[in-house]
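anyone else get weird line breaks when pasting these?? whatever heres mine. first is seq + tokens for prot A
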Amino acid sequence: MKLPNKYGSVYKLSGKRRKPWAVRKTVGWKQVPEKMKSYPIYEFIGFYATRTEALQALAAYNEDPYDLHLDTITFAEVYEKWSDIHFEKIKDTNGYKAAFKTCKDIWEMKFVEIKLDHLQKVCDESGKNTPTLKTLKNMFGLMYDYAVIHEIVTPDKREMVKFVDISKPGNPNAYNRQPFTKKETKQLWDAQPSNQYISVVLILIYTGLRIGELLELKKEDVHLDERWFFVQESKTSAGIREVPIAEKVVPFFEYWMKKDCDHLICTPDEKPFTYRNYYDSYWIPLMLQMNMGKYVIEEGKKEPVYDGHRPHDTRHTCVSLLTEAKVDERIVQKIVGHKGQNVTQIVYTHLELPIKLEAINKI
């Protein structure tokens, strides 16, 4: 059924999408004199899962343009409308979703009444570190861009976002990451023959893997003859990568490859590990045994709390060792799966496996 002129349009986007049905209105025309033509300027109202939902949204839009109720629309409602549009343009939405959760105290506030102090308080009390706070501030900016375009707030309101201070990050529940010292690493090597699970710690140190990446690693992705393996699943897109196998840990890979389990690392009865099982039943007891961890009683808590090396410390150890060996930072990022920090690092990071192998064998 054809919609009336100037009513707006509904159409389906290509590819697999969570909300493939787009709704837009023509809000003006762009004149191109040299071509003697004019082109429509569209404004997208939103994206929807079904055509019925899209048509209903367009009808509601025409009845009450933008359906924003400018004087009463809340922070959460603006986020919903902005994210419906913005999330269709990006691959990874988890960062913004996590940032939104930190804004719970202002979800129900009228957007027009939010001041700099409110945004600053969200940051100060979020307990998050720099990367999350950067995403949070970026989200504020994008939401205010949306709000200005849709005349929810005036352009000067957008300017206040630049004054949000994220220079004092800090998660009170975050652990202080401490790389393994050279003495501790040697202690692990000396004790390794007595406990097969010490080899897991050393594999982590000499690959820079996150513990979840190692526990999820399957044997089909290990290419031992060529000295590399492929990380299929990671918490970031940069984490999907080829990782070189240092010569000194090849015997450990050979040992675990002989186990009757699809996953490289397994339990004594040759079953895949869950993180909780590995951490509670193997990591902590091993650290206690090696005097690299202990239980302490913290003020205000009745139960003792583990205080010592955690699996992520091995990742910091790997980065520290590579840096000490003067390995180029771009190669380090490729090995451990860090994102590039600037355009140069992102563009010039197509590194071949032999270069990675040479680098990892320096530590």
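and prot B, same format (seq, then tokens)
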Amino acid sequence: MAVRMQQEINKVIIGQEQTVKFVVAALFADGHVLLEDVPGSGKTMLAKAVGRTIGGNFSRIQMTPDLLPADMTGINYFNMKTSEFQFLRGPVFTNVLVADEINRATPKTQAGLLECMEEKQVTVDGTTYSLDDVFIVLATQNPVDNQGVFPLPEAQIDRFLVKLGMAYPKHDSMVQILQTHLGGGKPVLDAVEKVVDISEVFTAKKLIRETEVHEDILHYVAEIVEETRSHSGVLLGISQRGALGLVRMAQVLAAFDERDYVLPDDVKEAAVPVLAHRLILKNSERMKQNREQEIIEEILGRVSVPTE
């Protein structure tokens, strides 16, 4: 199932196989994705392609400074015909939600996504409405902008299971991208077909949660997390949510390899995408590019790996 989804997405997202893999993995891990890279790198197209593969509902919100939380969650309006208030659902009531340029929205609006992402529900005027069981937020942001943006607070960054980039493609991939988009005829996204149903995704998510995680693996994860808290360059290390997210992602990666048990290699593969963006570095470390990733890799090389 996951392989077919990746194959379909890779038809239009060329040369980004690892990023595509982790986006699909986040869907099955019941997590959310923060895509950060330069403008025009295909972040929004990737999000749309994910929605097409599962045949679910898809919504896109262009985050702007004048956007209000009610524009996302919905409002109660007075129906003149029935003389009653009715709830008009916002775009968060979907399966795949793209929050484009999330850091252009004000902190108040950004906070409007917190309840949706963590608890899969929306509360409006004291009434709580549940979101779909299959719900993923794919938020994008550009790291090069510094005007008219509101950096995401640590509390919201921690809500994202993984943070991924869309690196510049290699030469051959770049040529293939140009050929794909200059082909004419149908829109590029029309090449992406539905390969699974929402019900199948929901069932797969429940089965993946049953993937065995040996106690030694849990100790391994705990040691990695504890090392981030004592690292000399880290002001604030990984929380319990981050540790659980690492285990969830390792379970998904094991399932992708058709295993019903987690290996240390699954933890290692998931560690940087799941943990790096959660680190809060000391001022002396913040100006170093990719320092968060380097710290996680240092810790992985230092913590002893469990053996059978």
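btw re prot B: The chain is about 45% helix and 15% strand. The longest helix spans residues 240-256.
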